[in-house]
Write a structure and sequence with these properties.
alpha/beta, Uracil-DNA Glycosylase, subunit E, 6 helices, 31% helix, globular
Length: 214
């Protein structure tokens, strides 16, 4: 048996712990924060930034809502979006972006939340301390919602029953350390999520209208 074969079998038997590759965007003036989970493997990246897969619809949705152009953030020379323009936009509109997960294992070697084992969640207390104006957090899928609600329960010592967690396109109020937070859950922007781009865009548009961003 070759060394290469041994290495492959060891990886399959003991999946690798990965660290989230992208730092959060924590502009101090942020009033809302977007929270997802974990990016796809690097071979699927079109850029080195949150939601890096060119076929993920997140930045198309932002483009359609704020600029009436799905390709607004696209790097026209490549199948990719431009992280510099996205970061500038997030700062201008006081929107933070922070994953719920710092370290995880891909049990199936892919980006599926279903097969993602969380090893270390984000330090939510530290993140929120850097965002004094934050009043709203929105998650971009079920796994992110699960991690966020678990973290909040651990911080506050007052768990909320899973049946009362926000469902897709719904929200709940959540008092946290003397501030009133509102927690929204929005649809995943992955192409694997069975919802059309138009319907995803409309869900995000309604959210941004509700929080006063458009």
């Amino acid at each position: 048996m070759t060394q290469k074969t041994n290495a492959k079998q060891n990886t399959e038997t003991h999946p690798q712990i990965e660290s989230h590759p992208f730092p959060p965007v924590l502009t101090p003036d942020a009033t809302i924060m977007m929270m997802g989970t974990f990016p796809p493997t690097s071979d699927k990246w079109g850029m080195a930034f949150h939601y890096p897969n060119f076929y993920n619809d997140m930045w198309r949705i932002y483009g359609r809502i704020f600029f009436n152009d799905a390709d607004h953030f696209r790097d026209k020379d490549y199948k990719a979006f431009d992280p510099k323009r996205i970061i500038e936009f997030l700062h201008q509109h006081a929107i933070a972006s922070c994953p719920t997960v710092k370290k995880a294992i891909r049990e199936q070697g892919n980006a599926s939340d279903k097969h993602l084992t969380i090893i270390e969640p984000v330090d939510l207390k530290n993140v929120l301390a850097q965002l004094p104006k934050l009043h709203t957090i929105f998650t971009t899928g079920g796994k992110a919602t699960e991690v966020l609600m678990t973290l909040l329960a651990q911080e506050q010592g007052t768990p909320i029953a899973k049946s009362k967690w926000p469902k897709t396109n719904q929200h709940i109020d959540y008092p946290y350390a003397g501030r009133a937070l509102t927690l929204y859950r929005l649809p995943s922007t992955s192409r694997a999520y069975p919802l059309s781009l138009d319907k995803k865009t409309e869900a995000y548009r309604q959210f941004f209208q509700t929080v006063g961003k458009i």
